[in-house]
Every structure is written in C-alpha cells, then in structure tokens.
C-alpha cells in the first residue's frame, strides 16, 4: 500500500455514534502503511485516544475541509451544509475538492441530491458512495442493513406491545434483547417482513424471532402480484426492500382508510421517502429518536416508525461489522474494481444531472 492518506471525519448528526473504521481496523490500516488522520468526535462510540493508540494522528472535528488535496475523506452520513454563492451555484466554502467516501444518498433524486452533486462538480471532488460499492454482480460490499432491520423490527414490536419509550437512545444488544423477549401474557400476532431475503430482512427476522414471533416472509416473488388483503391482514409489517426502480406501492392512502385493515404498526426500514421509487408513499417525513412513532391514520389506527439511522442505536455492533467489511476494501483503494464501479456511478449521476442542469457539466 503506497501513500494512501485517509481522513476519518466527525459525523455532524449529534445522534450518530457509529464510525466506518473502528480502532482495531485503524491499527490494521496503519500497519499496512496507510496514513490515517482521525477527527475528534464527541459522540463517536470509540474515543479518539483509541485511534491515537492505534497510530493515527488526531485532529479537530471538521478540519477535513483544510486537508491536503490528495486526502480521501471517509465518513458515513451527510457533510455539513455550506452557503451557496451568487445565484444557485455553490459558494467557495461549499465546493468539494477531495475524494469522499460516504453514503451520499444522491443518485435516486432524493431531496438535496442535486445540491450535493453540484458541490462536487464545482470543486472537482469525487464521491465514492458506499451504497454503490458493489461486487461484479452488483451486490453491496459494505452495509449496515442487518442491524437496521434488527432495530427496525425490534422497535416496531416494542411499540406494538406498548413498551417503546422515547426519546430513543443508543444501547447494547443485551439491553435491547432483554426488552424484546416476550413477557408472560404477551400475545402472538401476525407479522410480515418484506424484503425478507436481504440483509435488513434477515436482521428483522432475527429480531422478530427474539420477540417470540414467526413472521411471514416476502421477497420479490411474493410481491410481483401483490396480495393486498393478505398484507393488510398482518398486524405488524417491516419493510426492508432495496428499490432500484419503480415498483408497485405496498401501501396507499386507500389502504389506510380500509376499515377491515388489521395492520397497526409499520416500520419502514427502507426510508426512501421523497424518492420516486418509494414503495410506501403514505408519508412524507421520516421519524426520529425524539419522536420515533407517527400516527398515520386514526381509525383504524396505523402507526409508522421510519428512522433513517437505525443502526446508530447499536453503534458498537454496527460499526464493528461495517468496519470489518470496509477495511480490506480501503487497503485496495483506487486499485480494486469495486472503486472503479463506484466512480463510474458517480460520473454517470453527474452526467445525468448535467443533462438537466447546464450549469453542472460532466464531473
Ligand atoms: N433505516 C436505516 O437506518 C437503514 C440502514 C441501512 C439500510 N437501510 C435501507 O434498507 C434497505 C434494504 O437494505 P439491505 O442492505 O437489506 O438490501 P438488500 O439488497 O440486502 O436486500 C433487499 C431485499 O429486498 C428485496 N426486494 C427488492 N425489491 C423488492 C420488492 N419490490 N418486493 C419484495 N422484495 C424486494 C430484494 O430481493 C432483497 O432481498 C435499503 O434501502 C437501505 O438503504 C436503511
């Protein structure tokens, strides 16, 4: 490994305690010759001292903006906003000059997607979006899905049983499982996982099993001709699909008003709100740790949980798994075919946008 300089940035969301690289993997990277700079981050689940002990240089939070041009900035979630310049063009401070690795949520016409790509185009930087770090068959190589599904299903069950207390806070798996185990007198109810064969789906099934439930499991074959009455006959549903194109919505406003509906609790792990590919177009804002549940319909009641940073509630387990998958890929940064595919997807997104926005041009 030659002269790779990675910069692990602080996450700006105050609830984000995860990190894409844990200290034990930081040690592995440093041992392989990578320079790893780590920003201080008050809420990260691992303290800065653990990275320092692993041979990393520790710097103040947010200092990546002044990092050398050849640095690769590594994070998980959104970058801090920066003011626009004259007109709609990104201002000096908004321009992104570095290579960045994080979840950009910028290729499915999500809110803010265009603005983010414009920031990269203006600064000449590159986004290596972790969602598009895939193998030759298009399968994701790094993902938090399992723990997202686990948490989503767990919160849905706790709410359905009247045991969810807000605000939510990060916890250990043992604490979560202790709350999830059925108490004497708890009734079984019909639950459904859609996207059951995926990472999140597997996590959701594991959590439901922990809660003493045996969910119905649907994946692509079962939703091709959607059996709406069957779906609405479940009391609890966890949506964990990964959509890459338009598909039939699983719930519509008409289903919410359906008087015979037994469905009472929905957890949308997918959280594609705002995207044209959203399979649950019955709500327009995600929920959060302070207010995890929103009533979508009064009679019959339907409650929604749609939290887009679920794995952050189990930050240690989620970070450790993710880091184990990402670290070998970081050791191949710029060489492995997965990074080339990731770059191609960014270039394509910029080009698509450029076709609609003359100000952007190709990246
Ligand atoms: N809320 C959160 O905090 C959070 C965290 C991580 C991931 N996610 C999201 O969860 C989603 C799932 O991620 P994953 O890693 O489990 O993906 P995955 O690719 O491992 O699994 C997705 C599954 O959905 C199935 N599927 C796709 N379209 C379907 C349809 N129309 N009907 C039925 N099944 C369908 C696929 O066959 C696959 O089995 C993604 O959108 C991801 O962005 C959310």
Give your account of this protein's structure:
- Strand 7, helix 6 and strand 8 form a beta-alpha-beta unit.
- The relative contact order is 0.15.
- The two termini are 27 Å apart.
- The protein is built from eleven helices and twelve strands.
- By secondary structure, the protein is an alpha/beta fold.
- It is 31% helix and 13% strand.
- It has two domains: 176 residues, NAD(P)-binding Rossmann-like Domain (Rossmann fold); 169 residues, NAD(P)-binding Rossmann-like Domain (Rossmann fold, 3-Layer(aba) Sandwich), CATH 3.40.50.720.
- Bound molecules: nicotinamide-adenine-dinucleotide.
Secondary structure elements and pairings:
Blueprint (H helix, E strand, L loop, with lengths): L4 E4 L14 H9 L3 E5 L8 H6 L3 E3 L12 E3 L24 E4 L10 H11 L2 E4 L15 H16 L12 H8 L10 E4 L4 H12 L5 E3 L1 H4 L4 H5 L3 E4 L13 H5 L7 E4 L24 E5 L4 E4 L9 H16 L6 H20 L7
Parallel strand pairs: 1-2, 1-4, 2-3, 4-5, 5-6, 7-8, 7-9, 9-10, 10-12
Antiparallel strand pairs: 11-12
Helix pairs in contact: 1-10, 4-6
The structure holds nicotinamide-adenine-dinucleotide (NAD).
**Total domain units:** 2
Return the CATH architecture of the largest domain: 3-Layer(aba) Sandwich
Question: Would you report the number of β strands?
Answer: 12
Bound molecules: nicotinamide-adenine-dinucleotide
Radius of gyration: 21 Å
- In CATH, the homologous superfamily of the largest domain goes by the name NAD(P)-binding Rossmann-like Domain
Strand content: 5-15%
Order of helices and strands: EHEHEEEHEHHEHEHHEHEEEHH
The side-by-side strand order for the widest beta sheet comes to: 3-2-1-4-5-6
Helix content: 25-40%
- Uncertain spans: 359-363
Q: What is the multimeric organization of the chains shown?
A: single chain
Q: What structural class do helix, strand and pairing data support?
A: alpha/beta
Number of helical stretches of at least 4 residues: 11
Overall 3D form: globular
The biggest beta sheet reads: 6 strands, parallel
Pfam family, one: AlaDh_PNT_N
GO molecular function, one term: saccharopine dehydrogenase (NAD+, L-lysine-forming) activity
InterPro entries: AASS, AlaDH/PNT_N, Lys1, NAD(P)-bd_dom_sf
Keywords: NAD, Oxidoreductase
């Amino acid at each position: 490994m030659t002269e790779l300089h990675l910069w692990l940035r602080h996450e700006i969301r105050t609830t984000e305690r995860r990190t894409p690289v844990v200290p034990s993997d930081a040690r592995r990277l440093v041992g392989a010759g990578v320079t790893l700079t780590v920003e201080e981050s008050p809420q990260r689940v691992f303290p800065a001292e653990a990275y320092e002990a692993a041979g990393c240089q520790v710097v103040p939070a947010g200092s990546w903006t002044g990092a050398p041009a050849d640095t690769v900035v590594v994070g998980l979630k959104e970058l801090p906003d920066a003011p626009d310049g004259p007109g709609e063009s990104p201002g000096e401070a908004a321009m992104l000059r570095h290579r960045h690795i994080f979840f950009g949520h910028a290729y499915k016409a999500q809110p803010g997607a265009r603005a983010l790509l414009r920031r990269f185009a203006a600064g000449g930087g590159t986004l290596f979006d972790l969602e598009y770090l895939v193998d030759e068959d298009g399968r994701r190589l790094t993902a938090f899905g399992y723990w997202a599904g686990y948490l989503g299903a767990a919160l849905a069950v706790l709410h359905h049983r009247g045991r969810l207390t807000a605000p939510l806070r990060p916890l250990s798996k043992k604490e979560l499982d202790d709350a999830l185990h059925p108490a004497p007198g708890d009734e079984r109810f019909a639950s459904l996982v859609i996207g059951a064969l995926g990472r999140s789906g597997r996590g959701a099934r594991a959590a439901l099993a922990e809660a003493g439930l045996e969910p119905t499991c649907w994946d692509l074959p079962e939703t091709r001709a959607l059996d709406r009455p069957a779906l609405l006959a479940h009391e609890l549903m966890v949506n964990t699909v990964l959509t890459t194109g338009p598909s039939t919505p699983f719930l519509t406003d008409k289903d919410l008003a359906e008087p015979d509906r037994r469905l009472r609790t929905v957890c949308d792990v997918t959280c594609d709100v705002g995207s044209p590919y959203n399979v649950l177009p019955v709500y327009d804002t995600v929920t959060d740790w302070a207010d995890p549940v929103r009533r979508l319909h009064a009679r019959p009641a339907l409650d929604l949980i749609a939290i887009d940073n679920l794995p952050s509630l189990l930050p240690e387990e989620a970070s450790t798994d993710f880091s184990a998958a990402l670290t070998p890929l970081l050791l191949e940064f710029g060489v492995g075919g997965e990074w080339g595919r990731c770059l191609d997807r960014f270039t394509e997104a910029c080009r698509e946008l450029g076709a609609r926005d003359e100000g952007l041009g190709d990246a």
